[in-house]
Amino acid sequence: MSTWLITGGAGFIGSNTAHALLKSGHRVIIVDNLSREGSKKNLHWLQATHEGLQFERVDVREYAALRAVIERHADIDALVHLAAQVAVTTSVVNPREDFEINALGALNVLEAVRETGINPAILYASTNKVYGGMETIQIGETETRYYYEDLPEGVSEEMPLDFHSPYGCSKGSADQYMRDYHRIYGLRTIVFRNSCIYGPRQFGVEDQGWVAWFIIAALLQRPLTIYGNGKQVRDILFVADLVQAFLKAVERIDQTAGQIYNMGGGPENTLAVWSEFQPLLSELFARPITAAYADWRPGDQKVYVSNTAKARRELDWEPEVNVRQGIKRLYEWVVANRGLFEDV
Protein backbone atom coordinates (compact mmCIF):
# COMPACT_ATOMS: atom_id res chain seq x y z
CA MET A 1 0.00 0.00 0.00
CA SER A 2 1.09 3.57 -0.63
CA THR A 3 1.82 6.52 1.65
CA TRP A 4 -0.14 9.77 1.31
CA LEU A 5 0.42 13.18 2.90
CA ILE A 6 -2.58 15.52 3.00
CA THR A 7 -2.25 19.21 3.81
CA GLY A 8 -5.50 20.48 5.27
CA GLY A 9 -6.18 16.84 6.04
CA ALA A 10 -8.50 17.62 8.96
CA GLY A 11 -10.78 19.70 6.75
CA PHE A 12 -13.87 18.53 4.90
CA ILE A 13 -12.30 17.07 1.75
CA GLY A 14 -9.13 16.13 3.63
CA SER A 15 -10.86 14.07 6.30
CA ASN A 16 -12.95 12.24 3.71
CA THR A 17 -9.84 11.52 1.65
CA ALA A 18 -7.91 10.33 4.69
CA HIS A 19 -10.80 8.12 5.81
CA ALA A 20 -11.09 6.43 2.40
CA LEU A 21 -7.33 5.85 2.19
CA LEU A 22 -6.99 4.50 5.73
CA LYS A 23 -9.98 2.23 5.20
CA SER A 24 -8.19 0.76 2.17
CA GLY A 25 -5.00 0.13 4.15
CA HIS A 26 -2.90 3.07 2.95
CA ARG A 27 -0.62 5.04 5.28
CA VAL A 28 -1.72 8.65 5.84
CA ILE A 29 0.00 11.71 7.30
CA ILE A 30 -2.21 14.73 7.95
CA VAL A 31 -0.69 18.23 8.01
CA ASP A 32 -3.06 20.85 9.38
CA ASN A 33 -2.98 23.93 11.64
CA LEU A 34 -6.54 23.17 12.86
CA SER A 35 -7.67 26.75 12.26
CA ARG A 36 -10.85 25.90 10.34
CA GLU A 37 -14.23 25.35 11.93
CA GLY A 38 -14.71 21.66 12.56
CA SER A 39 -11.13 20.58 11.84
CA LYS A 40 -10.45 19.49 15.42
CA LYS A 41 -13.68 17.48 15.40
CA ASN A 42 -12.74 15.83 12.12
CA LEU A 43 -9.26 14.99 13.40
CA HIS A 44 -10.64 13.46 16.61
CA TRP A 45 -13.06 11.38 14.53
CA LEU A 46 -10.27 10.13 12.29
CA GLN A 47 -8.02 9.30 15.25
CA ALA A 48 -10.84 7.43 16.99
CA THR A 49 -11.72 5.54 13.81
CA HIS A 50 -8.27 4.59 12.50
CA GLU A 51 -5.12 3.39 14.18
CA GLY A 52 -1.87 4.50 12.65
CA LEU A 53 -2.97 7.92 11.43
CA GLN A 54 -0.09 10.38 11.74
CA PHE A 55 -0.69 14.05 12.45
CA GLU A 56 1.64 17.05 12.09
CA ARG A 57 0.35 20.40 13.34
CA VAL A 58 1.94 22.76 10.83
CA ASP A 59 0.83 25.91 9.02
CA VAL A 60 1.69 25.83 5.29
CA ARG A 61 2.76 29.47 5.51
CA GLU A 62 5.70 28.41 7.69
CA TYR A 63 8.18 27.11 5.12
CA ALA A 64 10.86 25.73 7.44
CA ALA A 65 8.34 23.72 9.45
CA LEU A 66 6.63 22.43 6.31
CA ARG A 67 9.89 21.41 4.69
CA ALA A 68 10.92 19.57 7.86
CA VAL A 69 7.69 17.56 7.67
CA ILE A 70 8.33 16.70 4.01
CA GLU A 71 11.87 15.62 4.85
CA ARG A 72 10.64 13.39 7.68
CA HIS A 73 8.18 11.76 5.32
CA ALA A 74 10.30 11.61 2.19
CA ASP A 75 8.85 8.20 1.30
CA ILE A 76 5.42 9.58 0.41
CA ASP A 77 3.89 8.38 -2.86
CA ALA A 78 1.27 11.13 -3.11
CA LEU A 79 0.70 14.59 -1.64
CA VAL A 80 -2.76 16.17 -1.69
CA HIS A 81 -2.60 19.93 -1.14
CA LEU A 82 -5.94 21.00 0.34
CA ALA A 83 -4.87 23.55 2.99
CA ALA A 84 -6.50 26.83 1.99
CA GLN A 85 -8.48 29.94 2.79
CA VAL A 86 -11.73 29.01 1.08
CA ALA A 87 -14.14 31.98 1.11
CA VAL A 88 -14.41 34.77 -1.45
CA THR A 89 -15.90 37.12 1.15
CA THR A 90 -13.01 36.54 3.58
CA SER A 91 -10.49 37.22 0.80
CA VAL A 92 -12.12 40.59 0.08
CA VAL A 93 -11.86 41.58 3.75
CA ASN A 94 -8.30 40.31 4.21
CA PRO A 95 -6.56 39.83 0.83
CA ARG A 96 -3.05 39.61 2.32
CA GLU A 97 -3.91 36.65 4.55
CA ASP A 98 -5.75 35.02 1.66
CA PHE A 99 -2.64 35.38 -0.54
CA GLU A 100 -0.28 34.05 2.12
CA ILE A 101 -2.38 30.95 2.78
CA ASN A 102 -3.35 30.12 -0.80
CA ALA A 103 -0.59 31.37 -3.08
CA LEU A 104 2.41 31.32 -0.75
CA GLY A 105 1.23 28.13 0.94
CA ALA A 106 1.08 26.32 -2.40
CA LEU A 107 4.50 27.64 -3.42
CA ASN A 108 5.89 26.43 -0.08
CA VAL A 109 4.54 22.94 -0.76
CA LEU A 110 6.10 22.88 -4.21
CA GLU A 111 9.44 24.22 -3.00
CA ALA A 112 9.56 21.79 -0.07
CA VAL A 113 9.06 18.88 -2.47
CA ARG A 114 11.53 20.25 -5.03
CA GLU A 115 14.27 21.08 -2.55
CA THR A 116 13.87 17.77 -0.73
CA GLY A 117 14.42 15.96 -4.04
CA ILE A 118 11.44 13.61 -3.83
CA ASN A 119 8.89 13.13 -6.59
CA PRO A 120 5.44 12.15 -5.30
CA ALA A 121 2.25 12.69 -7.23
CA ILE A 122 1.00 16.14 -6.15
CA LEU A 123 -2.75 16.76 -6.32
CA TYR A 124 -3.92 20.35 -5.97
CA ALA A 125 -7.49 21.42 -5.22
CA SER A 126 -8.05 24.51 -7.36
CA THR A 127 -11.43 26.11 -8.04
CA ASN A 128 -13.82 27.12 -10.81
CA LYS A 129 -13.29 30.70 -9.59
CA VAL A 130 -10.14 30.83 -11.76
CA TYR A 131 -12.52 31.40 -14.70
CA GLY A 132 -13.93 34.58 -13.16
CA GLY A 133 -17.43 35.83 -13.83
CA MET A 134 -17.37 34.55 -17.46
CA GLU A 135 -19.27 37.65 -18.56
CA THR A 136 -18.81 36.83 -22.25
CA ILE A 137 -20.76 33.57 -21.96
CA GLN A 138 -24.37 33.83 -23.07
CA ILE A 139 -26.72 33.06 -20.18
CA GLY A 140 -30.38 32.16 -20.53
CA GLU A 141 -33.00 32.27 -17.79
CA THR A 142 -36.04 30.16 -16.93
CA GLU A 143 -38.51 30.48 -14.09
CA THR A 144 -36.19 28.62 -11.69
CA ARG A 145 -32.65 28.81 -13.06
CA TYR A 146 -29.98 30.30 -15.27
CA TYR A 147 -28.33 28.17 -17.96
CA TYR A 148 -25.57 28.32 -20.57
CA GLU A 149 -27.02 28.99 -24.02
CA ASP A 150 -23.92 27.78 -25.87
CA LEU A 151 -22.21 25.37 -23.46
CA PRO A 152 -24.61 22.43 -23.02
CA GLU A 153 -21.79 20.22 -21.69
CA GLY A 154 -20.45 22.89 -19.35
CA VAL A 155 -17.11 24.68 -19.00
CA SER A 156 -14.04 22.85 -20.28
CA GLU A 157 -10.41 23.29 -19.30
CA GLU A 158 -9.98 25.44 -22.44
CA MET A 159 -11.96 28.29 -20.91
CA PRO A 160 -9.64 31.35 -20.60
CA LEU A 161 -8.53 32.15 -17.07
CA ASP A 162 -9.86 35.38 -15.60
CA PHE A 163 -9.10 35.61 -11.90
CA HIS A 164 -11.80 37.64 -10.14
CA SER A 165 -11.67 38.51 -6.42
CA PRO A 166 -8.59 38.11 -4.23
CA TYR A 167 -9.61 34.47 -3.68
CA GLY A 168 -9.69 33.85 -7.42
CA CYS A 169 -6.27 35.49 -7.75
CA SER A 170 -4.63 33.52 -4.94
CA LYS A 171 -6.08 30.16 -5.97
CA GLY A 172 -5.41 30.90 -9.63
CA SER A 173 -1.79 31.79 -8.91
CA ALA A 174 -1.32 28.49 -7.09
CA ASP A 175 -3.09 26.66 -9.93
CA GLN A 176 -0.59 28.04 -12.43
CA TYR A 177 2.42 27.44 -10.18
CA MET A 178 1.37 23.81 -9.93
CA ARG A 179 1.17 23.53 -13.69
CA ASP A 180 4.46 25.30 -14.29
CA TYR A 181 6.42 23.28 -11.71
CA HIS A 182 5.63 20.25 -13.85
CA ARG A 183 6.91 22.00 -16.98
CA ILE A 184 10.00 23.57 -15.42
CA TYR A 185 11.03 21.11 -12.70
CA GLY A 186 9.30 17.89 -13.71
CA LEU A 187 7.16 17.65 -10.55
CA ARG A 188 4.23 15.32 -11.07
CA THR A 189 1.46 17.80 -10.35
CA ILE A 190 -2.25 17.41 -11.13
CA VAL A 191 -4.72 20.29 -10.82
CA PHE A 192 -8.40 19.72 -10.03
CA ARG A 193 -10.53 22.82 -10.68
CA ASN A 194 -13.33 21.91 -8.31
CA SER A 195 -16.92 23.07 -8.54
CA CYS A 196 -19.16 22.68 -5.47
CA ILE A 197 -18.09 19.67 -3.41
CA TYR A 198 -20.42 18.55 -0.60
CA GLY A 199 -20.90 15.69 1.83
CA PRO A 200 -20.38 14.47 5.41
CA ARG A 201 -17.77 16.13 7.67
CA GLN A 202 -18.51 19.49 6.00
CA PHE A 203 -18.93 22.28 8.54
CA GLY A 204 -20.46 24.71 6.07
CA VAL A 205 -20.87 28.36 6.99
CA GLU A 206 -22.67 31.22 5.27
CA ASP A 207 -19.85 32.19 2.92
CA GLN A 208 -18.53 28.72 2.11
CA GLY A 209 -19.96 25.23 1.79
CA TRP A 210 -23.47 26.38 0.90
CA VAL A 211 -25.07 22.93 0.47
CA ALA A 212 -24.06 21.86 3.98
CA TRP A 213 -24.75 25.30 5.46
CA PHE A 214 -28.34 25.37 4.23
CA ILE A 215 -28.99 21.96 5.80
CA ILE A 216 -27.26 22.89 9.08
CA ALA A 217 -29.05 26.24 9.32
CA ALA A 218 -32.42 24.64 8.55
CA LEU A 219 -31.84 21.99 11.22
CA LEU A 220 -30.88 24.54 13.87
CA GLN A 221 -33.48 27.06 12.63
CA ARG A 222 -30.89 29.74 12.01
CA PRO A 223 -31.45 32.56 9.50
CA LEU A 224 -30.55 31.90 5.87
CA THR A 225 -29.48 34.61 3.40
CA ILE A 226 -29.52 34.14 -0.37
CA TYR A 227 -27.12 36.42 -2.28
CA GLY A 228 -28.64 37.27 -5.65
CA ASN A 229 -32.00 35.86 -6.69
CA GLY A 230 -31.39 32.18 -5.92
CA LYS A 231 -31.50 31.07 -9.55
CA GLN A 232 -27.72 30.68 -9.72
CA VAL A 233 -26.87 27.17 -10.91
CA ARG A 234 -23.96 25.01 -9.79
CA ASP A 235 -22.98 21.48 -10.60
CA ILE A 236 -22.43 19.72 -7.29
CA LEU A 237 -20.25 16.69 -6.62
CA PHE A 238 -20.50 14.34 -3.65
CA VAL A 239 -17.16 14.19 -1.85
CA ALA A 240 -16.77 10.40 -2.18
CA ASP A 241 -16.80 10.83 -5.96
CA LEU A 242 -14.03 13.45 -5.76
CA VAL A 243 -11.91 11.09 -3.64
CA GLN A 244 -12.31 8.40 -6.31
CA ALA A 245 -11.02 10.88 -8.89
CA PHE A 246 -7.96 11.52 -6.69
CA LEU A 247 -7.23 7.80 -6.48
CA LYS A 248 -7.67 7.22 -10.20
CA ALA A 249 -5.43 10.18 -11.05
CA VAL A 250 -2.60 8.81 -8.90
CA GLU A 251 -3.03 5.32 -10.36
CA ARG A 252 -2.47 6.87 -13.80
CA ILE A 253 0.22 9.35 -12.80
CA ASP A 254 2.35 8.71 -15.90
CA GLN A 255 -0.56 10.04 -17.99
CA THR A 256 -2.08 12.57 -15.58
CA ALA A 257 1.08 14.42 -14.44
CA GLY A 258 0.91 18.02 -15.60
CA GLN A 259 -2.79 17.83 -16.42
CA ILE A 260 -5.74 19.98 -15.32
CA TYR A 261 -9.22 18.58 -14.77
CA ASN A 262 -12.47 20.46 -14.29
CA MET A 263 -14.09 18.47 -11.50
CA GLY A 264 -17.75 18.61 -10.59
CA GLY A 265 -21.04 16.84 -10.98
CA GLY A 266 -21.35 17.90 -14.62
CA PRO A 267 -24.58 18.75 -16.46
CA GLU A 268 -26.34 15.72 -14.95
CA ASN A 269 -25.88 16.98 -11.38
CA THR A 270 -26.86 20.65 -11.32
CA LEU A 271 -28.93 22.57 -8.81
CA ALA A 272 -30.22 26.15 -8.57
CA VAL A 273 -28.92 27.30 -5.20
CA TRP A 274 -32.31 28.30 -3.77
CA SER A 275 -35.19 28.17 -6.24
CA GLU A 276 -34.59 24.43 -6.67
CA PHE A 277 -32.84 23.59 -3.41
CA GLN A 278 -35.51 25.18 -1.21
CA PRO A 279 -38.28 22.72 -2.22
CA LEU A 280 -35.90 19.81 -1.67
CA LEU A 281 -34.95 21.13 1.78
CA SER A 282 -38.57 21.67 2.71
CA GLU A 283 -39.34 18.11 1.66
CA LEU A 284 -36.50 16.69 3.78
CA PHE A 285 -37.50 18.69 6.87
CA ALA A 286 -41.24 18.27 6.26
CA ARG A 287 -41.78 22.02 6.83
CA PRO A 288 -41.26 25.21 4.80
CA ILE A 289 -37.68 26.51 4.84
CA THR A 290 -37.45 30.26 4.21
CA ALA A 291 -34.62 32.71 3.55
CA ALA A 292 -33.91 36.43 3.21
CA TYR A 293 -32.29 37.94 0.11
CA ALA A 294 -29.25 40.23 -0.26
CA ASP A 295 -27.13 41.74 -3.06
CA TRP A 296 -24.95 39.66 -5.34
CA ARG A 297 -21.41 38.96 -4.11
CA PRO A 298 -18.24 39.97 -6.05
CA GLY A 299 -17.37 37.56 -8.84
CA ASP A 300 -20.42 35.37 -8.28
CA GLN A 301 -21.17 33.36 -11.43
CA LYS A 302 -24.82 33.08 -12.50
CA VAL A 303 -24.01 29.60 -13.78
CA TYR A 304 -21.10 27.30 -13.30
CA VAL A 305 -21.25 23.77 -14.68
CA SER A 306 -18.13 21.68 -15.21
CA ASN A 307 -17.51 19.87 -18.46
CA THR A 308 -16.09 16.66 -17.01
CA ALA A 309 -15.41 14.94 -20.34
CA LYS A 310 -11.63 15.04 -19.90
CA ALA A 311 -11.78 13.48 -16.42
CA ARG A 312 -14.23 10.84 -17.64
CA ARG A 313 -11.98 10.00 -20.60
CA GLU A 314 -8.55 10.09 -18.97
CA LEU A 315 -9.41 8.90 -15.44
CA ASP A 316 -12.14 6.41 -16.38
CA TRP A 317 -14.22 8.25 -13.80
CA GLU A 318 -17.76 9.51 -13.46
CA PRO A 319 -19.94 10.65 -10.56
CA GLU A 320 -21.82 7.81 -8.91
CA VAL A 321 -23.95 9.82 -6.43
CA ASN A 322 -26.67 11.99 -7.93
CA VAL A 323 -27.98 15.25 -6.45
CA ARG A 324 -30.99 13.83 -4.62
CA GLN A 325 -29.02 10.86 -3.22
CA GLY A 326 -26.11 13.02 -2.09
CA ILE A 327 -28.21 15.70 -0.41
CA LYS A 328 -30.23 13.04 1.40
CA ARG A 329 -27.01 11.39 2.64
CA LEU A 330 -25.64 14.73 3.83
CA TYR A 331 -28.96 15.58 5.51
CA GLU A 332 -28.97 12.24 7.35
CA TRP A 333 -25.38 12.77 8.53
CA VAL A 334 -26.10 16.31 9.76
CA VAL A 335 -29.22 15.19 11.63
CA ALA A 336 -27.39 12.22 13.18
CA ASN A 337 -24.55 14.51 14.30
CA ARG A 338 -26.52 17.56 15.38
CA GLY A 339 -24.36 18.03 18.47
CA LEU A 340 -21.33 18.81 16.29
CA PHE A 341 -23.02 21.96 15.03
CA GLU A 342 -24.59 23.41 18.17
CA ASP A 343 -21.54 25.62 18.82
CA VAL A 344 -20.81 26.55 15.21
Report on this structure.
- The chain is built from twelve helices and 15 strands.
- It has helices at 12-23, 39-49, 63-72, 88-93, 95-116, 165-185, 210-220, 239-251, 253-256, 277-285, 309-315, 323-336, and strands spanning 3-7, 27-32, 54-57, 78-81, 121-127, 139-141, 146-148, 188-194, 196-198, 225-227, 233-238, 260-263, 270-272, 292-294, 303-304.
- Helix 1 packs parallel to helix 2, helix 5 runs parallel beside helix 6 and helix 7 (210-220) packs across helix 12 (323-336).
- The chain is globular, with a radius of gyration of 19 Å.
- The model has no long low-confidence stretch (mean pLDDT 96).
Radius of gyration: 19 Å
Amino- and carboxy-terminal Cα gap: 37 Å
What oligomerization state is this entry in? single chain
Sheet of most strands: 7 strands, parallel
Q: Strand fraction band?
A: 15-25%
Low-pLDDT windows of residues:
none
Dominant shape: globular
Q: What is the string of helix and strand elements?
A: EHEHEHEHHEEEHEEHEEHHEEHEEHH
As laid out across the biggest beta sheet, the strand order is: 3-2-1-4-5-8-12
Q: Provide the structure class.
A: alpha/beta
Helix content: 40-55%
Overall mean pLDDT: 96
- Count helical runs: 12
Q: What's the count of strands?
A: 15
From the structure above, extract its key features:
41% helix, single chain, 15 strands, 7-stranded parallel beta sheet, alpha/beta, 344 residues
Briefly say what this structure is.
The chain has 344 residues and is an alpha/beta fold. It has helices at residues 12-23, 39-49, 63-72, 88-93, 95-116, 165-185, 210-220, 239-251, 253-256, 277-285, 309-315, 323-336; strands at residues 3-7, 27-32, 54-57, 78-81, 121-127, 139-141, 146-148, 188-194, 196-198, 225-227, 233-238, 260-263, 270-272, 292-294, 303-304.
